[in-house]
């Protein structure tokens, strides 16, 4: 298994993983499917801030970060997304991706990394808590999907010491 920066040719595999999550789970509140061209553009724009887990030439998961909010005051705060193919879960790939993503973020002087986790995803909350993300807010009924309201759990990890 290898963790490496994503390449444009990984876009189709990433789309397959991400769209399965969008279509079939409450892990994300979005209903807009990803496209290979959109993911390829994200890979080009984010560079090393878009990582993949690969095993024998097959992409099994990805992690990426992006601006938390617009404006220069938020330049050192990022939000991330991490997803694995179902057959890749429970093999340590998520943890390996998270380590690689945090290392890249630290190298880019990111101070604070955020996770927005569906309240219907206790496994996602536990996954983030294990490497030190802390729940800082639970926003009730801010997401809607599958004809129901869902909570959003905001989790944060400082990558550099607070001042």
UniProtKB/TrEMBL annotation:
One Pfam family cited in the UniProt record for this chain: Acetyltransf_1
Ranges for domain N-acetyltransferase: 1-160
Keywords attached to this entry: Acyltransferase, Transferase
Xref: Gene3D superfamilies: 3.40.630.30
Keyword presence, Acyltransferase: yes
PROSITE patterns given in the database record: GNAT
Keyword Acyltransferase among UniProt keywords: yes
Protein name per its UniProtKB record: Phosphinothricin acetyltransferase
């Amino acid at each position: 298994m290898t963790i490496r920066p994503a390449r444009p040719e990984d876009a189709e595999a990433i789309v397959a993983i991400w769209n399965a999550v969008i279509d079939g789970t409450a892990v994300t509140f979005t209903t807009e499917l990803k496209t290979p061209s959109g993911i390829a553009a994200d890979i080009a724009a984010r560079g090393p801030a878009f990582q993949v887990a690969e095993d024998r030439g097959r992409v099994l998961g990805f992690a990426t970060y992006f601006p938390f909010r617009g404006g220069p005051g938020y330049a050192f705060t990022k939000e991330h997304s991490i997803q694995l193919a179902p057959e890749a879960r429970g093999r340590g790939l998520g943890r390996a991706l998270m380590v690689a993503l945090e290392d890249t973020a630290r190298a880019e002087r990111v101070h604070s990394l955020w996770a927005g986790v569906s309240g219907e995803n206790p496994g996602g909350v536990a996954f983030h808590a294990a490497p030190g993300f802390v729940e800082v807010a639970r926003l009730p009924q801010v997401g809607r999907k599958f004809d129901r309201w869902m909570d959003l759990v905001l989790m944060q990890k400082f990558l550099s010491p607070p001042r």
